[in-house]
Design a protein that fits this description.
Strand order of the largest sheet: 3-9-10-16-13-12-11
Mean pLDDT: 96
Number of strands: 23
Largest sheet: 7 strands, mixed
Structural class: alpha+beta
Low-confidence stretches: none
Number of helices: 13
Radius of gyration: 26 Å
Bound molecules: glycyl-adenosine-5'-phosphate
Strand content: 25-35%
Length: 442
């Protein structure tokens, strides 16, 4: 399957089955903004739940936080985003389109007579590059003047830094410890695209780990290992995951060292998570701009210092896309193409489909009882329409790992057929054991 075809097929499946829709579609859509449908919202929620479980609930040294999207505008001066969160842009004076100055489609040097607009083809119409800030601006209160400007946060991290002392004091944690947060972030990306890979509104899952200076390199290595392990635990193909180390020129203004976890998408190797050693840049800047002391007093060592930070920053949408890309496959079975989303059971939107083989002989009643019992424990789907093979296929492309069929034998010996999505193999499991059987495999 050609790589572009795979993305086209995935986008079409996502719309058809209710994973992802274009935002405001009936109005022609809104550039690079997407909505999650009934299956997509479950998939993304499962990704976030797995992250929260691994990062907060399963650890004693990380606390959760849910900070507001709107923050004091000085936060973004301190963070460096007002001055530095920019991309160089060029405009075409002829067709009015706007491009990143390094857009590979541009021929020649922007601002020079030989430069050619990649859309209308006019020569000499491209302006000199100008810096363009990626933060969305809005106004707080009724007056739309410069004093009322606030930004939609371009990352969740800053909400953690400005709350670091609040969390430290209220949770009675000691360094080393971390704060984790999942939330929306907004960037006015100039070259968004590749479906939900790069969007203007997205969700981040970020954790900031506060450590004693001098121990940051060691913690950085630990976090690299743990984060790669988490991605593998989602069932992603190990051969499609790799590290990318940021070289000097790639390093963000705040980072002492940075590695990306990359996945091999149909459009190339791309970042899904960044792990950054941020040193004491963030707390140092917030201390300076707020005028509030943000030092930590280490009682055991009778020592005061500004903690260093190791950050892990993943995109929930990107991880969801990675799972969809990694799981998508087509197989020919008995002369028919079967589309399968091979999602790990723990992230699959629906864990089990429940089907009465026929709509008679008490099978719908028994299947409904089973469905009502199972749905108290995990997400299920009841389907009694069409041939059983068709119902299995519908669940295959929704990524549902188990199909449970109530048939003649169920009435006779109280067992159901459990059909496995990937192998299509079937086995019989007792009605009273089926919930436990599935839970063990989630
Ligand atoms: N606090 C550090 C930070 O925000 P980043 O590398 O800019 O670092 C971290 O972003 C993660 O957020 C990325 O690895 C990606 O998964 C996600 N992300 C960033 N920009 C995105 C966008 N425009 N659309 C979707 N996800 C995005």
């Amino acid at each position: 399957m050609a790589d572009t075809t795979l993305m086209d097929k995935l986008v079409s499946l996502c719309k058809r089955r209710g994973f992802v829709f274009q935002s405001s579609e009936i109005y022609g859509g809104l550039g690079s903004v997407w909505d999650y449908g009934p299956l997509g919202v479950e998939l993304k929620r499962n990704v976030k739940d797995r992250w929260w479980r691994a990062m907060v609930q399963a650890r004693d040294d990380i606390e959760g936080l849910d900070a507001a999207i709107l923050m004091h505008p000085k936060v973004w001066e301190a963070s460096g985003h007002v001055a530095g969160f920019t991309d160089p842009l060029v405009d075409c004076r002829h067709c009015k389109n706007r491009f990143r100055a390094d857009d590979p489609r541009i021929k020649g040097t922007p601002g020079q007579p030989d430069a050619q607009c990649p859309v209308c083809g006019t020569r000499g119409s491209l302006t000199e590059p100008r810096m363009f800030n990626l933060m969305f601006k809005t106004f707080m209160g009724p007056v739309e003047d410069s004093a009322a400007v606030v930004y939609l946060r371009p990352e969740t991290a800053q909400g953690i830094y400005v709350n670091y002392l609040n969390v430290l004091q209220s949770s009675r944690q000691r360094i080393p410890f971390g704060i984790a947060q999942i939330g929306k972030a907004f960037r006015n990306e100039i070259t968004p695209g590749n479906f939900i890979f790069r969007t203007r509104e997205f969700e981040q899952m970020e954790m900031q780990f506060f450590v004693q200076p001098g121990t940051d390199a060691e913690w950085f290595e630990r976090w690299r290992e743990w984060r790669m392990e988490w991605h593998r635990s989602l069932g992603l193909s190990p051969a499609k995951l790799q590290w990318h180390q940021h070289s000097g020129s790639e390093l963000a203004h705040y980072a002492k060292a940075a590695f990306d976890i990359q996945y091999e998408f149909p459009f190339g190797w791309q970042e899904i998570e960044g792990i950054h050693n941020r040193g004491d840049f963030d707390l140092g800047r917030h201390q300076e701009y707020s005028g509030k002391k943000l030092e930590y007093f280490d009682q055991a060592q009778n020592q005061r210092y500004l903690p260093c930070i190791v950050e892990t920053s993943a995109g929930a949408d990107r991880v969801a896309l990675t799972l969809l890309v990694d799981g998508y496959r087509e197989e020919v079975v008995e002369g028919e193409t079967r589309v399968v989303l091979g999602l790990s059971p723990s992230v699959a939107p629906i864990k089990a489909g429940v089907f009465p083989l026929v709509k008679k002989d008490g099978m719908p009643e028994l299947a409904t009882t089973l469905y009502n019992d199972l749905r108290q424990q995990f997400s299920c789907f009841y389907d009694d329409s069409g041939a059983i093979g068709r119902r299995y296929r519908r669940m295959d492309e929704a990524g549902t790992p188990f199909g449970l069929t109530v048939d003649g034998d169920t009435l006779a010996n109280r067992t159901v057929t459990v059909r496995h999505r990937d192998s299509m193999q079937q086995e019989r499991v007792g009605l009273d054991r089926v919930a436990g059987y599935i839970k063990e495999r989630l």
